Amino acid sequence: MSSFADFQNEIYLAGLSGVVPDLPMSAEGLERRAREQLDAVAYAYVAGSASAERTAAANTAAFDRHRLVPRMWRGTSGADGRDLSVEVLGTKLAAPVLTAPIGVLELLREQGEKLVAEVTAELGVGMVLSTAASTPIEEVGAAAGAWWYQLYWPNDHELARSLVERATAAGARAIVVTADTPGMGWRPRDLELGHLPFLQAKGIANYLSDPVFRAKLATPPEESEEAMRMAVLTWVGLFGNHTLRPADLGRLREWTELPIAVKGVLHPDDAREFVDAGAAGIVVSNHGGRQVDGSIAALDALPEVVAAVGDRAEVLFDSGVRTGSDVMIALALGAKAVLYGRPWAYGLGLAGRDGVRHALRVLLADLDASMGLSGCARPADLDGGVLRSTR
Length: 391
Known about the structure:
Its EC number is 1.13.12.4. This protein is an alpha/beta fold. It has a single domain, classed as TIM Barrel. It has helices at 6-15, 27-37, 40-47, 54-61, 112-123, 137-143, 157-169, 188-192, 205-208, 211-214, 225-238, 249-255, 268-276, 298-309, 324-332, 342-373; strands at 66-68, 86-88, 91-93, 97-99, 126-129, 147-151, 175-178, 260-265, 281-284, 314-317, 337-340, 387-389. The strands form 3 sheets. An 8-stranded parallel barrel has the order 4-5-6-7-8-9-10-11, surrounded by 8 helices. Helix 15 crosses helix 16 (342-373). The radius of gyration is 20 Å and the shape is globular. The mean pLDDT is 97.
């Protein structure tokens, strides 16, 4: 049975001895502390979104248009009455939460991906590892519990296949191919700092360690600064793929037997096409507002995508989740699980492994307590009947 809500008991009991948490107890607080304490480049990379950042703001504001209607005396207010576990794309999780794929974690903490892997394994939630990681696939896989691999499909199919096969061999349980990033969005915060980490050979560890990528290089990148510069330029020429179409999922299915989810879907017709092409999952997402400013809030897109997919595939959600009630709203609107991003990244930058653990425990405790107080024993209890729209 769920016990995530016990986190608050730990805090209050420690408070009797005058011990208070080192880190803020909300996603908003973590962001505020990160803005104050992190290196400006690192904070801008995590916090920044596209253009005027209207879509990033819309993602969080969209939750305000839905309100939960708690039910009383349902036998769920105690932890023994709740079980938050789910199975998504064949992966069993202790709660319907996975860490969203965030790249270049070395900007926040050395070996950041491994720290996230260790924490998610401890808590029993999922991890989605970014292609743009600072730590090679195999090292992260060895430390992880239930993890999926996120593919930025390069414009070289042989390289894409190698990345997928490496992830499969390293123990990934699903492949999440991101559809909304054939190129970079217009991100003023990074532009004002003149900072794109990949040009500094950061966040390309999976390429530098890949045999297909290395075969394209005249000189191993570790031999000299010039060789590394040429490796970076080679990466620039390979990142992103504007030619992909839904039918290309058939190619991906030839490379792995793992379930495939497509991330970055907002239009119901796109969802139908991806499922028709073999996707087992759809992740409704606008990349946290980092790609197309002025695009629809991800939560507003969720119900139509759920209706379009029906029972042919599982729908997940990301972009804007900040609280336990946000998770509940997304699940009530039809998501099977959520991907949670920026707050744990701030925690990583502030306190390393402990910061990631803290940020995730805050979300999970909030979710656990809020479900119990709303009369919901299991994620399956969350449906449209627990919501009221305030539109």
